[in-house]
Amino acid sequence: MPLAFFTLAIIGTIWADGPWKERLEALNPVLKFLVLPLLLYHFGQSYRGHWVLRAFVLSCALLTMFSWVDYFEPQWRLPYDHVPGAPIKNYIDQSHVLVLCAFVLMPIAIGYFNERRFASLALVSSLITAFLATLVFVVTSRTALVCVPVLIILLSVRHFSLRTTAKLLSAAVLIVVAVWVMSPHLRERVEGIRTEYLSYRDTNLPTSTGLRLAWWQRSLDFIAEAPIFGNGTGSTRRLFNEDAAKKTGLWAARIGNPHNQTLYVAIQWGMVGCILLYAMWFCHLMLFRGLELASWIGLVVVAQNIFSSLFNSHLFDFTEGWVYVVGVGVAGGVVRSARPAATWGEWHVHSTSVDTYWRRRRWYGWQIKRMTDAELSEYFEMHMDELRRSKVVLDEPQS
Asked: 38: how many CB neighbours lie within 10 A of its CB?
Protein backbone atom coordinates (compact mmCIF):
# COMPACT_ATOMS: atom_id res chain seq x y z
CA MET A 1 0.00 0.00 0.00
CA PRO A 2 2.75 2.59 0.73
CA LEU A 3 4.25 1.85 -2.70
CA ALA A 4 0.83 2.20 -4.32
CA PHE A 5 0.41 5.54 -2.58
CA PHE A 6 3.77 6.76 -3.85
CA THR A 7 2.91 5.55 -7.36
CA LEU A 8 -0.36 7.51 -7.27
CA ALA A 9 1.55 10.63 -6.20
CA ILE A 10 3.89 10.25 -9.19
CA ILE A 11 1.02 9.71 -11.62
CA GLY A 12 -0.81 12.68 -10.07
CA THR A 13 1.87 15.03 -11.34
CA ILE A 14 0.52 14.48 -14.87
CA TRP A 15 -2.82 16.27 -14.42
CA ALA A 16 -1.66 18.94 -11.94
CA ASP A 17 -1.80 22.53 -13.24
CA GLY A 18 1.13 24.08 -11.39
CA PRO A 19 4.76 24.31 -12.56
CA TRP A 20 6.75 21.08 -12.56
CA LYS A 21 8.98 22.33 -9.75
CA GLU A 22 5.98 22.49 -7.40
CA ARG A 23 4.72 19.10 -8.56
CA LEU A 24 8.06 17.40 -7.86
CA GLU A 25 8.52 19.16 -4.52
CA ALA A 26 5.11 17.83 -3.48
CA LEU A 27 6.53 14.28 -3.76
CA ASN A 28 8.80 14.89 -0.75
CA PRO A 29 6.17 14.05 1.92
CA VAL A 30 5.47 10.63 0.33
CA LEU A 31 9.08 9.69 -0.36
CA LYS A 32 9.37 8.32 3.17
CA PHE A 33 6.88 5.57 2.24
CA LEU A 34 9.61 3.94 0.16
CA VAL A 35 11.54 3.20 3.36
CA LEU A 36 8.67 1.31 4.98
CA PRO A 37 8.99 -1.97 2.97
CA LEU A 38 12.77 -1.93 3.58
CA LEU A 39 12.26 -1.63 7.34
CA LEU A 40 9.66 -4.39 7.32
CA TYR A 41 12.08 -6.71 5.54
CA HIS A 42 15.16 -5.78 7.57
CA PHE A 43 13.58 -6.14 11.01
CA GLY A 44 11.85 -9.30 9.89
CA GLN A 45 15.35 -10.77 9.63
CA SER A 46 17.04 -8.88 12.47
CA TYR A 47 17.19 -9.61 16.18
CA ARG A 48 17.75 -5.97 17.11
CA GLY A 49 14.26 -4.51 17.00
CA HIS A 50 14.35 -3.96 20.77
CA TRP A 51 17.35 -1.64 20.32
CA VAL A 52 15.11 0.82 18.50
CA LEU A 53 12.56 0.70 21.32
CA ARG A 54 15.17 1.30 23.99
CA ALA A 55 16.73 4.17 22.05
CA PHE A 56 13.28 5.74 21.57
CA VAL A 57 12.47 5.51 25.30
CA LEU A 58 15.87 6.95 26.24
CA SER A 59 15.48 9.86 23.81
CA CYS A 60 12.01 10.65 25.17
CA ALA A 61 13.36 10.56 28.74
CA LEU A 62 16.10 13.04 27.84
CA LEU A 63 13.61 15.24 25.99
CA THR A 64 11.31 15.27 29.03
CA MET A 65 14.14 16.25 31.36
CA PHE A 66 15.27 19.00 29.01
CA SER A 67 11.67 20.21 28.62
CA TRP A 68 11.18 20.69 32.37
CA VAL A 69 14.52 22.49 32.70
CA ASP A 70 13.67 24.74 29.75
CA TYR A 71 10.27 25.58 31.24
CA PHE A 72 11.23 26.26 34.85
CA GLU A 73 14.80 27.60 34.42
CA PRO A 74 14.77 30.45 31.85
CA GLN A 75 18.53 30.97 32.15
CA TRP A 76 19.07 27.47 30.71
CA ARG A 77 16.90 28.02 27.65
CA LEU A 78 18.43 27.71 24.22
CA PRO A 79 19.15 31.08 22.55
CA TYR A 80 16.42 31.00 19.92
CA ASP A 81 12.71 31.78 19.80
CA HIS A 82 10.61 28.79 20.91
CA VAL A 83 7.73 27.88 23.18
CA PRO A 84 9.02 27.47 26.77
CA GLY A 85 9.11 23.76 27.53
CA ALA A 86 9.48 22.70 23.91
CA PRO A 87 13.20 23.17 23.26
CA ILE A 88 13.38 20.92 20.18
CA LYS A 89 11.13 21.09 17.10
CA ASN A 90 7.73 22.27 18.44
CA TYR A 91 5.22 21.46 21.15
CA ILE A 92 2.99 19.44 18.79
CA ASP A 93 5.80 17.08 17.80
CA GLN A 94 6.99 16.82 21.40
CA SER A 95 3.53 15.95 22.74
CA HIS A 96 3.04 13.41 19.95
CA VAL A 97 6.16 11.38 20.77
CA LEU A 98 5.69 11.60 24.55
CA VAL A 99 2.13 10.26 24.38
CA LEU A 100 3.30 7.48 22.06
CA CYS A 101 6.15 6.49 24.36
CA ALA A 102 3.94 6.56 27.48
CA PHE A 103 1.41 4.14 25.99
CA VAL A 104 4.12 1.90 24.53
CA LEU A 105 5.50 1.45 28.06
CA MET A 106 2.17 0.69 29.75
CA PRO A 107 1.98 -3.04 28.83
CA ILE A 108 5.61 -3.35 29.94
CA ALA A 109 4.64 -1.95 33.34
CA ILE A 110 1.76 -4.42 33.49
CA GLY A 111 4.21 -7.24 32.75
CA TYR A 112 6.61 -6.16 35.47
CA PHE A 113 3.71 -5.99 37.93
CA ASN A 114 2.66 -9.54 37.08
CA GLU A 115 6.26 -10.69 37.49
CA ARG A 116 6.56 -8.88 40.84
CA ARG A 117 9.60 -7.01 39.54
CA PHE A 118 8.85 -3.89 41.53
CA ALA A 119 12.12 -2.06 40.91
CA SER A 120 11.62 -2.26 37.14
CA LEU A 121 7.94 -1.42 37.61
CA ALA A 122 8.86 1.73 39.54
CA LEU A 123 11.29 2.84 36.83
CA VAL A 124 8.85 2.33 33.97
CA SER A 125 5.96 3.87 35.90
CA SER A 126 8.09 6.92 36.67
CA LEU A 127 8.83 7.38 32.97
CA ILE A 128 5.14 7.09 32.06
CA THR A 129 4.19 9.62 34.75
CA ALA A 130 6.91 12.04 33.63
CA PHE A 131 5.82 11.87 29.98
CA LEU A 132 2.16 12.50 30.76
CA ALA A 133 2.96 15.18 33.34
CA THR A 134 4.94 17.05 30.69
CA LEU A 135 1.89 16.97 28.44
CA VAL A 136 -0.38 18.28 31.18
CA PHE A 137 1.74 20.81 33.09
CA VAL A 138 4.43 22.02 30.67
CA VAL A 139 3.32 22.12 27.01
CA THR A 140 0.03 20.76 25.77
CA SER A 141 -0.98 19.82 22.25
CA ARG A 142 -4.73 19.59 21.90
CA THR A 143 -4.28 17.05 19.13
CA ALA A 144 -2.34 14.81 21.51
CA LEU A 145 -5.10 15.16 24.11
CA VAL A 146 -7.62 13.82 21.60
CA CYS A 147 -5.52 10.66 21.17
CA VAL A 148 -5.18 9.90 24.91
CA PRO A 149 -8.73 8.60 25.60
CA VAL A 150 -8.65 6.53 22.41
CA LEU A 151 -5.39 4.86 23.46
CA ILE A 152 -6.71 4.28 26.99
CA ILE A 153 -9.70 2.43 25.55
CA LEU A 154 -7.44 0.35 23.30
CA LEU A 155 -5.20 -0.53 26.24
CA SER A 156 -8.17 -1.56 28.37
CA VAL A 157 -9.83 -3.69 25.71
CA ARG A 158 -6.58 -5.38 24.75
CA HIS A 159 -5.14 -6.19 28.16
CA PHE A 160 -7.95 -6.32 30.72
CA SER A 161 -11.23 -8.02 31.41
CA LEU A 162 -14.50 -6.13 31.18
CA ARG A 163 -14.67 -5.62 34.93
CA THR A 164 -11.08 -4.41 35.15
CA THR A 165 -11.67 -2.14 32.15
CA ALA A 166 -14.62 -0.51 33.91
CA LYS A 167 -12.49 0.07 37.02
CA LEU A 168 -9.63 1.45 34.95
CA LEU A 169 -11.87 3.88 33.07
CA SER A 170 -13.44 5.05 36.34
CA ALA A 171 -9.97 5.66 37.77
CA ALA A 172 -8.98 7.49 34.59
CA VAL A 173 -11.99 9.80 34.95
CA LEU A 174 -11.01 10.63 38.54
CA ILE A 175 -7.43 11.33 37.48
CA VAL A 176 -8.63 13.61 34.69
CA VAL A 177 -10.79 15.56 37.13
CA ALA A 178 -7.87 15.93 39.55
CA VAL A 179 -5.49 17.02 36.79
CA TRP A 180 -8.07 19.48 35.46
CA VAL A 181 -8.21 21.15 38.88
CA MET A 182 -4.43 21.12 39.35
CA SER A 183 -3.35 22.34 35.91
CA PRO A 184 -4.35 25.88 34.85
CA HIS A 185 -2.32 25.38 31.69
CA LEU A 186 -4.47 22.41 30.66
CA ARG A 187 -7.70 24.29 31.38
CA GLU A 188 -6.52 27.25 29.36
CA ARG A 189 -5.68 25.09 26.35
CA VAL A 190 -8.98 23.18 26.39
CA GLU A 191 -11.24 26.12 27.17
CA GLY A 192 -9.47 28.07 24.45
CA ILE A 193 -11.21 25.94 21.84
CA ARG A 194 -14.62 27.30 22.79
CA THR A 195 -13.34 30.86 23.11
CA GLU A 196 -11.64 30.73 19.72
CA TYR A 197 -14.72 29.27 18.05
CA LEU A 198 -17.04 31.93 19.49
CA SER A 199 -14.65 34.70 18.43
CA TYR A 200 -14.55 33.28 14.92
CA ARG A 201 -18.33 32.84 14.73
CA ASP A 202 -19.33 36.18 16.18
CA THR A 203 -16.60 38.56 14.97
CA ASN A 204 -14.87 36.58 12.21
CA LEU A 205 -11.53 36.81 14.03
CA PRO A 206 -8.82 34.54 12.52
CA THR A 207 -8.31 32.38 15.63
CA SER A 208 -6.59 28.99 15.51
CA THR A 209 -9.89 27.13 15.60
CA GLY A 210 -11.50 29.57 13.18
CA LEU A 211 -8.68 29.25 10.65
CA ARG A 212 -8.97 25.49 10.71
CA LEU A 213 -12.70 25.60 10.07
CA ALA A 214 -12.20 28.03 7.20
CA TRP A 215 -9.46 25.87 5.67
CA TRP A 216 -11.67 22.80 5.89
CA GLN A 217 -14.52 24.63 4.18
CA ARG A 218 -12.26 25.80 1.36
CA SER A 219 -10.86 22.27 1.05
CA LEU A 220 -14.33 20.91 0.41
CA ASP A 221 -14.74 23.48 -2.37
CA PHE A 222 -11.44 22.42 -3.94
CA ILE A 223 -12.40 18.73 -3.70
CA ALA A 224 -15.75 19.41 -5.38
CA GLU A 225 -13.86 20.66 -8.44
CA ALA A 226 -12.21 17.24 -8.99
CA PRO A 227 -13.78 14.65 -6.66
CA ILE A 228 -12.56 11.41 -8.30
CA PHE A 229 -8.88 11.90 -9.16
CA GLY A 230 -8.24 15.22 -7.42
CA ASN A 231 -6.46 18.33 -8.63
CA GLY A 232 -3.09 16.64 -8.99
CA THR A 233 0.11 16.34 -6.98
CA GLY A 234 1.24 19.67 -5.56
CA SER A 235 -2.09 21.42 -6.10
CA THR A 236 -2.85 22.00 -2.41
CA ARG A 237 -0.40 24.84 -1.85
CA ARG A 238 -1.24 26.47 -5.18
CA LEU A 239 -4.98 26.45 -4.54
CA PHE A 240 -4.67 27.85 -1.02
CA ASN A 241 -2.21 30.52 -2.16
CA GLU A 242 -4.61 31.64 -4.89
CA ASP A 243 -7.41 31.80 -2.33
CA ALA A 244 -5.26 33.71 0.17
CA ALA A 245 -4.37 36.34 -2.45
CA LYS A 246 -7.99 37.52 -2.33
CA LYS A 247 -7.92 38.14 1.44
CA THR A 248 -6.17 40.41 3.95
CA GLY A 249 -4.60 40.07 7.38
CA LEU A 250 -4.19 36.66 8.96
CA TRP A 251 -6.87 35.32 6.64
CA ALA A 252 -4.31 35.77 3.85
CA ALA A 253 -1.89 33.32 5.48
CA ARG A 254 -0.31 30.99 2.92
CA ILE A 255 -0.47 27.35 3.95
CA GLY A 256 0.63 24.09 2.41
CA ASN A 257 -2.05 21.83 3.85
CA PRO A 258 -5.53 22.13 5.37
CA HIS A 259 -4.56 20.49 8.69
CA ASN A 260 -6.54 17.34 8.00
CA GLN A 261 -5.03 14.24 6.41
CA THR A 262 -8.12 13.15 4.50
CA LEU A 263 -8.70 16.60 3.03
CA TYR A 264 -5.03 16.94 2.13
CA VAL A 265 -5.15 13.66 0.20
CA ALA A 266 -8.55 14.32 -1.37
CA ILE A 267 -7.54 17.73 -2.75
CA GLN A 268 -4.62 16.21 -4.63
CA TRP A 269 -5.81 12.70 -5.50
CA GLY A 270 -9.54 12.70 -4.87
CA MET A 271 -11.55 9.68 -3.88
CA VAL A 272 -8.89 7.33 -5.28
CA GLY A 273 -6.30 8.76 -2.90
CA CYS A 274 -8.63 8.50 0.09
CA ILE A 275 -9.33 4.84 -0.69
CA LEU A 276 -5.60 4.12 -0.77
CA LEU A 277 -5.04 6.07 2.45
CA TYR A 278 -7.73 4.19 4.37
CA ALA A 279 -6.67 0.87 2.85
CA MET A 280 -3.10 1.45 4.06
CA TRP A 281 -4.26 2.28 7.57
CA PHE A 282 -6.53 -0.77 7.58
CA CYS A 283 -3.76 -3.12 6.41
CA HIS A 284 -1.42 -1.82 9.08
CA LEU A 285 -4.09 -2.23 11.76
CA MET A 286 -4.60 -5.83 10.66
CA LEU A 287 -0.85 -6.42 10.77
CA PHE A 288 -0.88 -5.54 14.47
CA ARG A 289 -3.88 -7.56 15.60
CA GLY A 290 -1.65 -10.02 17.51
CA LEU A 291 -1.11 -10.11 21.26
CA GLU A 292 2.66 -9.64 21.53
CA LEU A 293 4.37 -6.42 22.55
CA ALA A 294 5.49 -5.55 19.02
CA SER A 295 1.86 -5.70 17.85
CA TRP A 296 0.83 -3.34 20.63
CA ILE A 297 3.54 -0.85 19.67
CA GLY A 298 2.50 -0.93 16.03
CA LEU A 299 -1.17 -0.58 16.96
CA VAL A 300 -0.46 2.51 19.08
CA VAL A 301 1.57 4.08 16.26
CA VAL A 302 -1.19 3.53 13.68
CA ALA A 303 -4.12 4.47 15.95
CA GLN A 304 -2.41 7.66 17.11
CA ASN A 305 -1.66 8.64 13.52
CA ILE A 306 -5.24 8.04 12.42
CA PHE A 307 -6.83 10.15 15.15
CA SER A 308 -4.20 12.90 15.16
CA SER A 309 -4.70 13.19 11.41
CA LEU A 310 -8.19 14.51 12.07
CA PHE A 311 -6.61 17.85 13.00
CA ASN A 312 -3.26 17.72 11.22
CA SER A 313 -1.69 16.15 8.14
CA HIS A 314 0.60 14.08 10.34
CA LEU A 315 1.30 11.35 7.83
CA PHE A 316 2.91 13.91 5.54
CA ASP A 317 4.55 16.00 8.27
CA PHE A 318 8.24 15.36 8.86
CA THR A 319 8.46 14.22 12.51
CA GLU A 320 5.11 12.46 12.84
CA GLY A 321 5.44 10.95 9.37
CA TRP A 322 8.84 9.43 10.15
CA VAL A 323 7.59 8.22 13.54
CA TYR A 324 4.86 6.37 11.65
CA VAL A 325 7.23 4.89 9.06
CA VAL A 326 9.85 3.78 11.59
CA GLY A 327 7.30 2.56 14.13
CA VAL A 328 5.29 0.51 11.64
CA GLY A 329 8.44 -0.70 9.87
CA VAL A 330 10.26 -1.93 12.98
CA ALA A 331 7.25 -3.31 14.86
CA GLY A 332 5.80 -4.79 11.68
CA GLY A 333 9.08 -6.50 10.87
CA VAL A 334 9.19 -8.10 14.32
CA VAL A 335 5.57 -9.23 14.01
CA ARG A 336 6.09 -10.65 10.52
CA SER A 337 9.07 -12.66 11.73
CA ALA A 338 6.57 -14.81 13.69
CA ARG A 339 8.76 -14.95 16.79
CA PRO A 340 6.83 -14.58 20.05
CA ALA A 341 7.64 -11.51 22.13
CA ALA A 342 6.24 -11.26 25.63
CA THR A 343 8.19 -8.43 27.25
CA TRP A 344 10.21 -5.48 26.11
CA GLY A 345 13.52 -7.32 26.25
CA GLU A 346 12.11 -10.56 24.90
CA TRP A 347 11.42 -9.76 21.25
CA HIS A 348 12.84 -13.16 20.30
CA VAL A 349 12.73 -16.33 22.35
CA HIS A 350 16.38 -17.14 21.68
CA SER A 351 17.43 -14.10 23.74
CA THR A 352 16.37 -15.82 26.96
CA SER A 353 16.08 -19.36 28.23
CA VAL A 354 13.28 -21.75 27.48
CA ASP A 355 12.67 -22.08 31.19
CA THR A 356 12.14 -18.33 31.39
CA TYR A 357 9.90 -18.50 28.33
CA TRP A 358 7.70 -21.18 29.93
CA ARG A 359 7.40 -19.02 33.04
CA ARG A 360 6.55 -16.06 30.82
CA ARG A 361 3.89 -18.20 29.20
CA ARG A 362 2.17 -18.75 32.56
CA TRP A 363 2.43 -15.06 33.46
CA TYR A 364 1.39 -13.88 30.00
CA GLY A 365 -1.27 -16.45 29.20
CA TRP A 366 -3.53 -13.58 28.13
CA GLN A 367 -0.95 -12.63 25.49
CA ILE A 368 -0.28 -16.03 23.91
CA LYS A 369 -3.41 -17.89 24.90
CA ARG A 370 -4.02 -18.82 21.25
CA MET A 371 -0.76 -20.82 21.20
CA THR A 372 -1.38 -24.43 22.19
CA ASP A 373 1.25 -26.84 23.54
CA ALA A 374 1.45 -28.49 20.12
CA GLU A 375 2.10 -25.13 18.47
CA LEU A 376 4.79 -24.35 21.04
CA SER A 377 6.48 -27.68 20.38
CA GLU A 378 6.34 -27.01 16.65
CA TYR A 379 7.90 -23.61 17.21
CA PHE A 380 10.77 -25.10 19.21
CA GLU A 381 11.38 -27.70 16.50
CA MET A 382 11.47 -24.99 13.80
CA HIS A 383 13.98 -22.93 15.76
CA MET A 384 15.99 -25.75 17.32
CA ASP A 385 19.24 -24.67 15.65
CA GLU A 386 18.89 -21.12 16.90
CA LEU A 387 18.17 -22.31 20.42
CA ARG A 388 21.20 -24.61 20.39
CA ARG A 389 23.46 -21.85 19.09
CA SER A 390 22.24 -19.73 21.97
CA LYS A 391 23.01 -22.61 24.39
CA VAL A 392 19.46 -22.79 25.62
CA VAL A 393 18.45 -25.72 27.81
CA LEU A 394 15.52 -27.44 26.14
CA ASP A 395 14.32 -29.47 29.08
CA GLU A 396 10.77 -28.58 30.06
CA PRO A 397 10.72 -27.10 33.57
CA GLN A 398 9.00 -28.84 36.39
CA SER A 399 5.52 -27.54 37.04
From this structure: 12
| Rounded CA separation 282/17 (Å) | 32
Q: What is the pLDDT of residue 100?
A: 92
Q: What pLDDT is stored for residue 393 in this prediction? A: 40
Q: What is the CA radius of gyration of the chain?
A: 24
CA distance 342 to 354: 13
> What DSSP element (H or E) covers 382?
helix 373-382
pTM of structure: 0.77
DSSP string, 215-256: HHHHHHHHHHHSTTT-S-TTHHHHHHHHHHTT--GGGG---S
Nearest Cα to 309, choosing from 358, 341, 352, 274?
274
Q: Which amino acid is at 295?
A: S
CB atoms within 10 A of CB 225: 12
Residues of the chain falling short of pLDDT 70 = 78-82, 248-253, 338-399
Supply the DSSP symbol for 379: H
24 and 243 Cβ atoms separated by less than 8 Å? no
What count of Cα atoms within 13 Å lies in the side-chain half-sphere of residue 29?
23
Supply the angle between the helices 91-115 and 49-72 in degrees, to the nearest 10: 120
